[in-house]
Design brief:
By secondary structure, the chain is α/β, with parallel strands linked by helices. It is about 50% helix and about 10% strand. The chain has a five-stranded parallel sheet, sandwiched between helices. The N terminus is likely disordered.
């Protein structure tokens, strides 16, 4: 025995990209992380659907533009069969249409291929803790898209169903802030924030916090100048 403790749980990931070099690069980078395990790879959406059912990963990193079946269609099919699986889109840029379609399909957010390694890893780990990568740019585009396509509203439940505290949490979601910052600013625990998010999603019949942020923007229940989270004291 070495005396070194193994991680209690490892985040099991499926990498989906039609470029083998991209997949290998990400897999090699993540191999150095003791809390993450790449359990499989797929080169297109068809293979991704099969691999998702076979491996049941915790997280699927899904490229958008692929031959045979693109990432958006693969996401729709995987979420229809396994709604609890987390899927994050991997893309070169925050394409407006693809962003909106991915969120409607149930994606938890986007990761840019241009991200710095440390940022990329932090976001992957955040996703495993219930976070969702959604930037200010994404939030603005979601709002703009809903303005052009009002029938695409992810929920028809009135905002009055939410409590004042749930409204506050939604304000921070529209800015893409993680649970830790929300908890610090509101003076509550991260567990309490997660409970509020769970109740918000249940009340609004939404799949994830990205859709919740889109709902908040569409309903315009956030102020023009939302509160800024306090920095993490730790």
């Amino acid at each position: 025995m070495t005396g070194e403790a193994e991680p209690a749980e490892r985040l099991r990931m499926l990498l989906v990209d039609d470029h083998a070099l991209v997949r290998r690069g990400i897999a090699t980078f993540l191999a150095a992380c003791p809390d993450i395990e790449v359990v499989g790879e797929a080169e297109n959406g068809v293979h991704a659907v099969v691999k998702a059912a076979e491996l049941m990963p915790d997280l699927i990193l899904m490229d958008i533009q692929m031959p045979v079946m693109d990432g958006l269609e693969a996401t729709r099919r995987i979420k229809a069969a396994h709604p609890y699986l987390k899927i994050v889109m991997l893309t070169i840029a925050e394409e407006e249409r693809n962003l909106f379609e991915a969120i409607k399909a149930g994606a938890h957010g986007y990761l840019l291929k241009s991200s710095q390694p440390d940022e990329f890893l932090a976001r992957v780990r955040g996703i495993s803790q219930g976070e969702a990568p959604i930037s200010h740019v994404m939030a603005a585009k979601i709002l703009e898209e809903f303005g052009r396509h009002p029938q695409g509203n992810p929920s028809d439940v009135p905002a009055s169903k939410l409590t004042p505290r749930e409204h506050e949490v939604l304000q921070f979601l529209t800015q893409g802030h993680p649970n830790k910052e929300i908890a610090n600013t509101l003076g509550i625990s991260e567990g309490t924030v997660k409970n509020h998010l769970k109740h918000i999603l249940a009340k609004l019949h939404l799949q994830n916090r990205v859709q919740a942020a889109a709902y908040a923007l569409r309903e315009r229940i956030v102020p023009d100048d939302p509160p800024r989270p306090k920095p993490d004291p730790g």
